Amino acid sequence: MDIKLPRLGEGAESGVIVSLLVNEGDAIEKNQPLIEIENEKAVAAIPSTAAGVVKSIRVKVGDNVSVGQLILTLVSGAEEAASATPIARTPEQTTPVARPPASHSSDTKVGPTSVLSAGQSVNPSPTASPSIRRLAGELGLDLTHVPATGRGGRIEMADLRTYLRRLQDVAQRNQAPSPTLQPAPISESIDYSQWGEITRKPLSGLRKVIARRMTENWTTIPHVTQFGDADVTDLLHLRKTHAAMYEAKGAKLTLTPLLLKALATTLGKHPSFNASLDDARGEIVLKAYIHIGIAVDTEAGLLVPVIRDVNDKTILQLAIEVEQLAAKARERKLAPEEMKGGTFTVSNQGGIGGDHFTPIINKPEVAILGLGRATAKPVAQGNEIALRQMLPLAVSYDHRLIDGGNAARFIVDLVQAIEDFPESALQI
Predict the structure, then answer these.
(1) pTM (2 decimals)?
(2) Which residues are catalytic?
């Protein structure tokens, strides 16, 4: 049985193999991890879809593999013991190889030839009906790249349609840039060793993804950043008062889940900050759900797991989920789906230090909140001056959708939601 790379998630078509978890000759179980693959800022294990003995491994560490590509071949224990014995096939198991119509030109692409000679085959042709093979030939499609969902790995017409839609989506995303946007020139490689000792190391796959996305986000979105400060003195007191109760429930109560709850309330009042722009259709996409991404600083780079339905979850649920996702991010155990579907992102530098900064929007979102470290500052309260813990806020927004007045109102409402945080929300 051929084990091929399954679909990795929405829009994810390839990845880099970072480790092989089995060897040729190993007996493996169904759902046992075979390889680990890095894709979309995550490292995910790919499980086996069947049990058997590993006959041959067709990939190696460092290979960039695509969905549908052959990873390894399995045989059952009985087949391994009697590999020299030919296996009779029933008519239902045998599918003739469709040949292109005679009217096709010689350079029309069709599925690869199934059999070269007895006992010798290269890239076995996938199972599909003659009509599907004929259509693939007319369109110039290689059926070995089409993920099959039919019984026994058979390609159905729905699989072909899904594959065509995916190709269309990829083509739209890779459209040529506007004439006004010129591609950045490739920098000349400089011999820095002429001035002293240096060390070179290659960019990791994750760092390349981050660099590409940050460049795309910065060059395609007109960024503006609105700044503000929130008095979190009372909120910090509430956190300290209820911390022991949360610890008894196995949760660490930090300022982050409280701020997430205040942010969700504010996003509910300002839906344009929770939206996306569909450039292809010229539409604004307003989302009824609030899924907030949390930027996590790791040794490998910045990862952004997503907490879903923040507006519907309790502070206890948020505290547990924040801690769990942050730990998975630092251990590179996040699944690709755990970093998708976000509607807004928070970048919190409070644990490190610093004040206001200008975070870069995480496309296709239209806004991002940057948090600095809360520090004691003198604040006027009526005719008195008091030291209060002030939290720096910075909201970067997409000026194509959001205007400055809306951003100012958003900051005002967010500050109010933080400073007037209800103690009842912390009750367990």
Answers:
(1) 0.63
(2) 399
